[in-house]
Structures are given as C-alpha cells and as structure tokens.
Amino acid sequence: LQAVGFRPALWLMAGMLAVAVYVLLPQLADLPRMIEAIKDADPRYAGAALLASAVTYLGNGMALAGACPAPIRMVHAFLASVAATFVGSVTPPGVAHAGLNVRLFQKQGLAPTVAVSATAAKEVSVGVVHVLLLLLLALLAGSSDALRSEFDKLPSLDVIAIAVAVVIALIGVAVTIPRVRRVLRDTVIPALRESVASLRQLASNPVKMVVLVLGAVLLQLGYVAALYFSALALGADVGFVTIGLIYLTVGSVASVAPTPGGLGAVEAVLLAALVGVGMGSSPALAAVFLYRLATFWIPIPIGGLSFRALVARDIL
Q: What pTM did the predictor assign?
C-alpha cells in the first residue's frame, strides 16, 4: 500500500463507490424516497449504529491481543484493527487483514511462522465464535417463531445429507490428483498444524483465551448491533435475533465477495434480506446505506490516519 500511495488509494475508493452504485442501480431508482427516509432517521439509533461499529474494532483489537503470544499494547491492536479498514478498502477481502495482522505480530518480535500461526489461530477462533452465535440465535429464533417461514424454505435433511456426501466424494477425487496432494502436504496441513499448536498454547493461558473469545464475541455482536440500530433508525419493527441471523448468514457470505469489503454484494444481499423480513424497499435501502456508512465508509479515512501513525512509529 505504501508503494501504491494514498492518492491512488483514494481513486480506488472512488471506483469502489461507483461499483456499489452500479450494483444497486435498480434500487437507486427509488433514491428520492430513500433520501427522505434518511432525513427522517432517528438520530439516537444512528448514533448507536456508529457506536456499535466502534465496538467491532475494539473486539477485533482484543482478539488480536489475545491471539498474540507476545505482550502487545491494546491501543496498538485497536489502531491496527482500524487501519485494516483502510488497507482492506484497496485489496481483495481477507488479504489485507491477514497481512496486516502478521506484520503487527512480527513487529512484536515474533518469528514469521509464529506470526502466521497466531493470525490463523485468531481467525479460527473468530470463525468458531461466529458458528456458535449462529447456532444460539437459530435456537432462539426457533423458540420465538422468528424467521420460521424462512426456515421452512431450507432444504430437507435428506437433501443436505446428499449434498454433504457429494462434497465428500469430490474431495476424495481431488485428493487423488498429485498436484492437490502436494498442496495439501506442503501448505494446508503444515498451516493447520501451526494453527492447532497456537490454539493449544492459547488454551494454556486462560487470560489470553478469555480476551480472545470475548473480543471475537464483541466483533460479531458489534456488526449485528450496527445493522439492528440502522434498521431501527429507519423505523423497522425487526427483532435483534432476526437481524443477527441475517448478518451471520447471508451478510457474512456476501462480505467475502471478490471486491474490497464485499462492496456491492453486501448492499444487495442485505437489502433483499431486510425487504424479505417486512421492511419497505426505501427504508431498507436507507438502513443498508446507514449501516455501510457506519461500518465501512466512515472508518476508511480514520483507518488511513491510524495506518500512517502506526507505520511512522514502526508498529506496522
């Protein structure tokens, strides 16, 4: 990113905005009513959405501090989490965050392999927490009849079993290919072993483990709360559990689309999901815009300042 420069990065961000507008062009035909909806948004809930967005960076910073075997200042981990937003705005999803985390850990004195394994351990922990929260919210939704109509649309257990069997069979066929076996032997398996070793080391340190897990929980719930408050700001009558299921399922899948920050895909998917649970198209579009403003666009320039400050102080 330093080689590219900050001015080209701004041009890239402008290009990303153009992509988002293009993807949402059919919905933007309702732009005048969306603007009116934004004007009528409850400022208290809008402010709560911004606060929830800030909690996600606190959570990510805690997860970084918990995963790092070496001592690390929480403020540095927090600022690195904010800086990742800026770096991630001009790189493919996941690449910037992982690379920045490895760099941060190396600057704490960790060997490259240890820094990579600590980063992997952090991501694995966040993934596990994500799945556990999804299961918890699904149980709550089942007991409260939330999204029951949506669950009825899911495939039957027989169909899921057949799909799993097909996937296992395809994996078995792939493993018979020499090139795939070499990749597994030389790259995938060693990385998994290092991740497991890092997780074992973390498990032996209760304080680090608690900080890691608590940070992962705050990271996930922060995004859910940001979307929830964005919807409430536009007058939606949607429960927290429903919003949580939307974010942890379709929202998370869309965020790994091959554009920085899942740009375009996240907006389109969240818009369809909010309309699907009863919001009008104009308020739903305004809610998605507010959510992305709080969690994606506003943090970018702040992240740029954090990135420059950390680089200047040789923390990154």
A: 0.77
